[in-house]
Amino acid sequence: MFVLKDVCFSADGNQILKQITLSINHGEIFVIMGLSGAGKSTILRLLNGLIRPDSGLILVDGTDISKATEKELGPIRRKVGMVFQSSALFDSLTVAENVGFAWRNDRISKSELAQKVKEALALVRLADVESKMPAELSGGMKKRVGLARAIAMQPQAILYDEPTSGLDPMTSNTILSLIRDLNERLQVTSVVVTHDLEGAFKIADRVALLHEGEIIFVGTAAEMEQAQIPLVKSFLTGGQGEQGGY
Q: How many other C-beta atoms are found inside a 10 Å radius of the C-beta of residue 29?
């Protein structure tokens, strides 16, 4: 679904990613981990074209987006849903309006739009919240509304930026369960950036570990636990760092 080849990216005079080469398969849950500032969230922004690489190729379902125009990116972005760390809901819009936002320029009847919104909310285990405002929702509910908005356009892939940050353990487990359930039910590819090591191991088909802008490990959780790479061992024994960063 995604291929990065020799991708470099700099910001504010700092080289964030250095010669990143990575393939993410159709249908898998791929988790990206690393210390704060390692470049995790930068990879997500590159995958949906929010930023462009300094050099290298980025393929989304076989299409190179590294130099695509905004017009060319339109069809690609419809294939890739994004769940932001802060949920990024519009405070002045209802839940229904937030979830249906991606359809705003499509010729679709109000009844059909309402049905699509209801179906998307049902998939994230929410009901009877369409008329609520974001301020009336708990943190976990906001995350689920953000996820419903991402899946409303029936994407081929979903990108998650720190989906469990700021949540209590029970709510975090609910979100992780949803990620696994939706990945299987919708047959999508999921790319998850997280600092939650335990949660990552619960859902990941494969894990990549970033260190100072370079990939130092890619493999299953079991392979990661057995890896004899010093930086990997250090990360697993308490070096997971903070959320946030680049």
A: 23
pLDDT at 242: 39
* Cβ neighbours, 10 Å, residue 20: 24
pTM of the model: 0.91
Identity (one letter) of the amino acid at 147?
L
Q: In the Cβ-directed half-sphere of 216, how many Cα atoms lie within 13 Å?
A: 20
Which residue spans within 95-168 are E strands per DSSP? 157-161
Q: What is the sign of the dihedral through the CA atoms of 106, 96, 153 and 40?
A: positive
Q: What is the spatial distance between Cα 50 and Cα 47, in angstroms, rounded to a whole number?
A: 8
Q: Whole-angstrom distance between the N-terminal and C-terminal Cα of the chain?
A: 23
Contacts of 87 (CB under 8 A, 6+ apart): 134, 142, 143, 145, 146
Residue linked to tokens 């009877």: 128
Residue with tokens 């369409």: 130
Q: Where are the domains of the chain?
A: 2-244
Contact 34, 228 (CB under 8 A): no
Per-residue pLDDT tens over the stretch 208-219: 999 999 999 999
Distance CA 39, CA 216 (A): 13
CA distance 129 to 2: 34
User: Looking at residue 226, what DSSP letter applies?
Assistant: H
Would you state the CATH architecture of domain 2-244? 3-Layer(aba) Sandwich (3.40)
Q: Percent of the chain beyond pLDDT 70? A: 96
> Looking at residue 135, what DSSP letter applies?
G
Residue predicted with more confidence, 92 or 241: 92
Buried b (16+ CB within 10 A) or exposed e, 184-215: eebebbbbbbbbbbebbbbbbbbbbbbbebeb
